[in-house]
Each structure stands twice: as C-alpha cells, then as structure tokens.
Amino acid sequence: MSVALVYLLLLKATVTSFAGMGSLPQIRQDFVDTYHLVSADALSEAVLVGRATPGPMGAYVVAVGYLAIGWPGAVAGWLALITPAFAALPLLATVQRWLHVPRVRALVDAVVVAGAALLIPSGILLAVDAVRQLLRLR
Amino acid sequence: MTPSIRQLAWLIARDVNRTVGGGNASMELLRRSFEARGWADAQTHGLFVAVSRLTPGTNILAYCAAAGWRLQRWRGAAAAVAAASIPGALIVFGLAATLVRLDRYPAIQIALSLGMFVAGMLVLSSAFNLVKPYVRAGRWPFVATIAMLAGALYLVGWTPVRILLVSAVAGSLLPPKTSAPAAPAPKGTEVTRA
C-alpha cells in the first residue's frame, strides 16, 4: 500500500466529514472492511488515542495512518487532517466580499446562531459524560 | 492590531492544544485570547465560526486557517494550521507508536474526565458568547427563530451540516426587520474593493 493511496483514502474521509470524528465511518469502511489495513481493535485504539489527546479530535487519523503503514502513514494522516482546512480560505474570501449585502449578512448570522444552538447539546453531553465517568471511578 | 507570525502561531498552539473533547472549547479560548489582544472582535470570531462550520474536515483547523488568513494572509493561515495540528499530531503519533492505553490508569481517567467537564462548560460558554452580540443589538426575534429552527431539526435527527444550510436559507429569507443588523458591520468584516 503506497503512502499516496493512504493519503487519498484518509483525505476522502476527512473531506467528506464536517467534524473531527465524522470521518470515522468512512475510515472504518476503507481501512478495516475494504483494504484490511488495520484491524477493528487497532482502529478503536486510534480513536481512543485521538479522544484522549489534547488538540483537534480529528488528529486520530494520524494514528490510523501510522497503524496502517508506519511513520509515512502518520505523515499522510497529518496531511489529510490539514488539507480540508484550507477550503475555509476561499469560503471566507467569498463571504467577506458579499457581507455588505443584507441577505448575505443575515445568512452568515443565521449560521452563527444555528451553530451556537447546536453547541448546547454537545456541551451538555460532554459535561454529562465527564460526570458519569467520574461517578464510575468513585 | 496585527500579530507577528510567531505570536499568532504560539497563541494558537497554546489554546488549541490545551483542551480535550473537541474544537469548540478551543474556539472559545481563542476568542478570549483574540479579543484580549485586539486581534479580532466577537463578530469577526462569529464569522470565523460560521466559515469553519461550513468547511469540510476538522472545524478547529478551518477556524485557525480563517483566523490566520485574516491576520497574516497565506503565511498566517499556514502557520496557524501547522501550530494547531502539529503538537496534537505528534502526541497521537507517539502514543500510537508505543500503543499506550491511557485509560488503563485511574489518575489519567480522572484527569481526562475533569478536562472533558471543563471543555463542556467552555462549549456552553461559547454558545452564549456567539449569540450575545445579536441579543445585545436587539435582534432576539432573529436569534429565537433560528435557534428554535435549529433545535427542532436537531431533535428530529438532521445532521449539523443540513441544519446549518437550512438555517442559512431561513435567515436570508426572514423579513428585513427581523434579520437586518442593528449595528454597523463589525470592524474587520467591511468590504474592501481592489
């Protein structure tokens, strides 16, 4: 398995997801089911490492790449992690160019407000999970 | 005020790589740091958040790319993404290479749980801070309409991206009285023409 193919498989997963762990189903399908590059247990290990590590949760793809083909895979994973982020630049430039149009301003504002509303359940779930874990450890 | 590349990279590396549980808490830390230094105001932060939500991949990296580009163009974007991703990626690589099971140790489990709880609180604080400028500007009907729409779609199981897209369309279609900004465009988001 070449580094380029590992990069492309990981990129396919990261570029078609909209959150750090959103790429997991695609990675499971490609790396575990189709190409048998990592075992299901190894993938769980990678996810655990990603969750427990400070920084972007999507960084678990680095571990997936490493477990698949060694350190070149880790580099491919890092590249697949950061590549989609640069799509934000043309999006930001476009939004800024049209921000003086009231409808566009309202559209951006709506995304901000809806994004804030979506944060509430994820914040509550994170805190509840943490409390449950602490109670289990007592 | 515009930071140097080194200042920007250091701040982003520090704020992004000291939270567990996802990028939302990191975004809140970055908002506080940017505002304290006068690098971005609350509404510019809101713009970065909106763009990051609509960008594929990891949200916090898209946020950092947008913030870096806004402050230092291409060099800023590249430095910001590198600073946000390299420390965490190195730790993940190191742990994967040694196959250390972090959750084996109770002390680590407790520290991670406390970290997750703090991250949860930061996420809730982030939600409040994102809508605060709109509420202060008297746009609470707009906020209430969009928030209720997003909440209802979330409860029926829609994916976040679909919810954001529908909310964006709804926001642009709301009557001007509800959706029109009560304040002038925030500093840094005004239109510049070449």
How would you explain this protein's 3D organization?
The complex is a heterodimer of chains A (138) and B (194). With 138 residues, chain A is an all-alpha fold. Chain A has 7 helices and no strands. The N and C termini of chain A lie far apart (46 Å). The model of chain A has no long low-confidence stretch (mean pLDDT 86). Chains A and B meet through helix 3, helix 4, helix 5, helix 6 and helix 7 of A and helix 2, helix 3, helix 4, helix 5 and helix 6 of B.
Rg for CA atoms of chain B: 18 Å
**What's the Cα radius of gyration of chain A?**
18 Å
Q: Bin the strand percentage of chain A.
A: under 5%
The residue ranges of chain B in which pLDDT falls below 50 over 5 or more consecutive positions are: 180-194
State mean pLDDT of chain A (0 to 100 scale).
Answer: 86
**Main interface pair?**
A-B, 79 and 103 residues
The beta-strand count of chain A equals: 0
Summary, kept brief:
Chain A is mainly α. Chain A is 76% helix and 0% strand.
Supply database-style keywords.
heterodimer; A: 138 residues; mainly alpha; 7 helices; flat; B: 194 residues; 0% strand; disordered C terminus
